[in-house]
Each structure stands twice: as C-alpha cells, then as structure tokens.
Specification:
This protein is mainly alpha-helical. The chain is about 85% helix and about 0% strand. The chain has seven helices and no strands.
C-alpha cells in the first residue's frame, strides 16, 4: 500500500517538476507580477552558489566523521547524522523561504488566485536541490531526500486549500521525517552498504 501511494504521488510531482514553474511564471506574467518573476529568475542563477556556501559546514562535519572511520563507529554515525540533519534543515529553510516570498506578493483571499504563486514557489524551493541531485545521479541519499521533500511540499500546498489544521499536521510530519526519520534511515542504508562491501571484499 505504501509503495502504491508513492507511485500515485510520483505523477503530480513529475508534472510539477516539468511544468509547475513554467505555468506559474506565465500565469504570474498575465497578473503583472514581474517583480516576483524577476526574484525567481535571479534566484535561479544564484541560489546554487548561495546554497553551496551554506553546505560547507555539512562537508566539514562529514570530513570530521570520516577521520573516525575504522576507529570509533559511534562518532562516525554521530557526525554522519549531524551532517545529514544540517542538509535537511537547509532544505526545509529553502522551502519556507520560497513560500514566504511568493505568499508576500499575494493579496487575494481565494485558493485559485493563490495557485500561480504556489506553482512559482515550487521551482524556487526545490529547483536548487534538483540541480544538486542531477549532478549526483548515483547518489541514492540525495534522491531519497529530495523525493521525500517534494512529496511533503506538494501535500502542504494541497493542504492550504483545506484547513490550517491539516497544513499544521503536514508540517509536523514533514519536520519529524526530515529531521529524525530520514537521517537515521540514510545512515542505516549507508551501514548496510558498508557491511555489504566488507563481505564482498572477503569473499
């Protein structure tokens, strides 16, 4: 059932990744929101560089953890968790930042009128991380993290049309998964991969 749910959610995410920003941009152009369009386009060019700078602490933390590889497994896992946690915090911050910017330009009171702003926020929030993931096509951890973030951002955008309570529930679940479950899951996958490599080496 869980796999079926992921398959169902994959289709709208693929559509949003392909056409969300385009449709949102054209719609905003008809509304005359050129300033917001300009901000989004500017971030398209600079966000990768900005996020690369903010990701430096994660790389430093990972390098510290690797110094304990083969010496202290607990410290390796601890620094690995902190590194993953830091990246996930950046992803959440990017989503919040994009949503706040786009929402600040909307002065209406209907969900239909809000849609182009939400579509534009999709590209602003997840576009940089999609770019990073495209540079590492074999990195399963990046793919899983981005996919989970995309699912919950999509669910949150839908929940806005329902009620604040549902939006809050989605945000809480998103936070728990991104900050606790996902880093632990990625670490467990890394451990299994490391153990499998050791077994293959001695065979």
């Amino acid at each position: 059932m869980f796999n079926r749910l992921l398959e169902i959610l994959s289709l709208p995410i693929m559509i949003l990744n392909f056409a969300g920003g385009i449709v949102g941009g054209i719609w905003l152009a008809f509304l005359g929101e050129w300033r917001l369009i300009g901000i989004g386009v500017a971030l398209l060019f600079v966000s990768n560089w900005i996020l690369s700078i903010f990701m430096i602490p994660s790389m430093i933390i990972s390098s510290i953890g690797m110094k304990f590889y083969g010496k202290n497994k607990f410290l390796v896992l601890f620094f690995g968790y902190i590194s993953q946690l830091y990246i996930n915090i950046l992803i959440i911050a990017t989503c919040v930042f994009a949503l706040l910017i786009c929402s600040s330009f909307y002065n209406g009171n209907t969900y239909l009128g809000y849609i182009p702003y939400l579509l534009w926020s999709w590209g602003m929030a997840l576009g940089p991380w999609q770019f990073f993931a495209s540079k590492e096509p074999d990195n399963e951890f990046s793919a899983i993290t981005l996919f989970i973030a995309s699912i919950f951002y999509f669910l949150f955008l839908l929940s806005i049309a329902m009620s604040p309570a549902i939006s809050l529930i989605v945000l809480i679940i998103f936070g728990i998964i991104q900050l606790i479950v996902l880093p632990i899951f990625n670490l467990s996958v890394a451990i299994r991969m490391d153990q499998q490599e050791e077994m293959d080496f001695f065979q």
